[in-house]
Specification:
3 domains, alpha+beta, Endonuclease, Chain A
Length: about 475
């Protein structure tokens, strides 16, 4: 096994996309080959360029639809692609416009989120797009399935896209009943049969619902009873979603159409792609931008999104994430923000669902504390939200964590809102979360045992492959 690990470590050094990832794989393959060798066979990314080429070839098929959207933006009064500052940067990164006349409602925790999603689905008239990383065959999941099946029988076009890895435990009967009702249910990668084992490492972590091209939902919730606070150990469950109306909904259909095309080869050209009409009811609404990111992007869009937001902050930068394992550029950007006097706070859980992430989180305490960056640990159950607040007028809610998987491996989706009123609501929500949190200090690690400290150092070394 050590010999296999040695030769695989050479492959990792030659083919892994980042130096940190190459080092982490090389160390683990030579130190813990019994565990690392099977992991590398499943998750190693030595076929990455082949994947990118295939994915981008599929996106070319959607070019006429994307060009139509961009052309409509040029003649519309509800969108722009040439803005300066953070919004302009995010528009360039996402290749999607900043839109005006939007409305956004924050949905705190599971009950309000699913009540709002289910209500919108019940009112659907033309089509429903649903995309989740995890779907459970439990009460919540069956509630979704029953509504989707009913709307499909009524003649509404229903498209359900789910991630193979996240839905490994989803029963075939759940999917069969949906398909029999007329729901177009499709896995993202189709790992059954002769699928490339490499694909397992590229997961669609997006959470998106679009109803009739008019209403959309984006955030951190997947579909399962645990998101309603019913997990046996990780409860209460703290998460955030948002409900959106306005032109940004049209932009949010683009990543779904790309993912659907990748999974099925079909082009969803019958969706409502008229961006200008969406702002008719909300002429004084918010600026918004959809920020889809993924491993086939020309650049590492997700990490650049975080870097752009961090560097844009002048007064405040608050980030809530359950998985805080930043790479060196993000860590240094946070340190710089702290040094220039920005109120930088990172909110993470006290209770983790990953031991590696828990150990890793301790390793950042001292270097961030020295730069004035505060880390807070949420005490009231498990926190799963992915929220970012910059200064007094910009916030994002979505699916991306602050870790290598979100930066380089997962397909993620955030929505950025520039609006003072919305940002103040996000601030109030996070202040409430901070009131249920404790400030983490470097002394928290100093008080731990020697084996614990070793675990922290090893986990930090393995950060690029977590």
């Amino acid at each position: 096994m050590h010999i296999i690990g040695f030769f695989q470590s050479i492959s990792a050094v030659m083919d892994t996309r980042t130096s940190q990832g190459a080092i982490a794989w090389a160390i683990s393959l030579n130190t813990f080959p019994v565990v690392a060798v099977p992991a590398y066979m499943i998750f190693g990314d030595n076929d990455f360029q082949t994947y990118v080429t295939t994915r981008q070839a599929g996106i070319k098929d959607l070019r006429p639809m994307a060009e139509h959207l961009i052309e409509s933006v040029k003649t519309a009064d509800v969108a722009r692609t040439d803005l300066p500052g953070l919004m302009g940067t995010l528009s360039n990164l996402s290749s999607l416009p900043v839109t005006y006349g939007n409305q956004a409602e924050i949905l705190v925790d599971g009950s309000p989120t699913f009540e709002s999603i289910f209500e919108a689905i019940d009112q659907a008239e033309n089509y429903i797009l649903v995309q989740f990383y995890i779907i459970r065959d439990d009460e919540t999941g069956r509630g979704l399935a029953e509504r989707l099946a009913r709307k499909a029988r009524e003649g509404v076009q229903v498209y359900l896209l789910y991630d193979d890895y996240g839905c490994l435990g989803l029963s075939s009967s759940y999917l069969d009943s949906l398909r029999q009702a007329g729901v177009h249910a499709q896995s993202f990668l189709n790992l059954v049969g002769g699928a490339n084992r490499f694909q397992l490492n590229f997961r669609n972590h997006r959470k998106l619902v679009v109803v009739d091209g008019k209403t959309a939902f984006v955030g951190g919730h997947n579909v399962g009873d645990e998101y309603l606070g019913l997990h046996p150990t990780l409860s209460p469950w703290r998460d955030t979603h948002m409900r959106l109306t306005g032109p940004v909904v049209t932009s949010l259909q683009v990543p779904f159409a790309e993912d659907w095309n990748w999974a099925t080869g079909e082009i969803l050209d019958h969706l409502d792609w008229n961006i200008e009409s969406k702002a008719a009811d909300t002429p004084d609404g918010m600026e918004a931008i959809a920020i889809p990111t993924g491993p086939a992007d020309p650049m590492e869009t997700c990490s650049l999104y975080y870097l752009a937001a961090i560097h844009a902050a002048q007064k405040r930068l608050w980030i809530a994430t359950p998985y805080f394992v930043p790479d060196e550029p993000i860590t240094q950007a946070l340190q710089l923000a702290g040094r220039r006097g920005v109120d930088v706070r990172i909110l993470i859980p006290e209770q983790f669902d990953s031991s590696l992430v828990r150990y890793s989180s301790y390793s950042y305490l001292r270097e961030l504390e020295m730069a004035g960056v505060q880390i807070w640990r949420f005490q009231k159950g498990f926190m799963h939200q992915k929220v970012l607040l910059v200064d007094d007028d910009f916030a994002t809610i979505g699916s991306a964590n602050v870790d290598n998987r979100s930066f380089r491996l997962n397909f993620e989706l955030q929505v950025g809102i520039r609006d003072v009123g919305f940002a103040s609501q996000v601030e109030a929500m996070l202040r409430e979360d901070f009131s249920h949190s404790r400030r983490a200090r470097p002394e928290d690690l100093d008080r731990q045992s020697w084996p614990f400290k070793v675990g922290v150092r090893v986990s930090r070394l393995l950060a690029p492959i977590q």
